[in-house]
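Quick illustration, no need to memorize.
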Amino acid sequence: MSDDDHDHEHDDPHDHAHDEQQAERRARRRAALAQVRQYGDPVLRMRAGEVDEFDEELARLAERMIGLMHDADGVGLAATQVGVLRRLFVFNDEGDDRVLVNPVLTKVSNRTEVDDEGCLSLGPVRMPVERPAEVTLDGVDQYGEAVHLELDDLSARVVQHELDHLDGKLIIDRTDPESRREAMAQLRPRLILSR
């Protein structure tokens, strides 16, 4: 029998391994998102308090948050999103994981950009948000060492988004009225189902 006469395909072991990796990734994402507070949780509307102790517990929290951020396929995660009311967030800055504690925006550009944003606490909802295109941020890392960042583009957008979380603000508070209505139409049924 020639290959032409052979009318069924054999499973490619590479395809099977790829399918298993994708299934594992989806399972890790679901498990991570189960630990992220979702819209309607009151902690998402609370202002986080300053961090004054830089101990092993804080370092473990930062590491846990970095792991959750990656497993959830996110680019940033604020402590409030995991139920911790402390001024701390993690984000991925062009491939480098960063931890910011007690962050403060010290400079923002006059130039703004509008782009769609999503949020791990809002499920699949995305909406346009206008933000300064460049920012300067000061704070400390999880060990209390000074951090000074001058950011633009996606990294600037991400840190502003995470800072909003620390102040109890969400992207639905920063979008235009029509996008907010559309988002709320998607979010309200989730609130009813989660009760």
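Confidence is low (pLDDT under 50) at residues 1-8.
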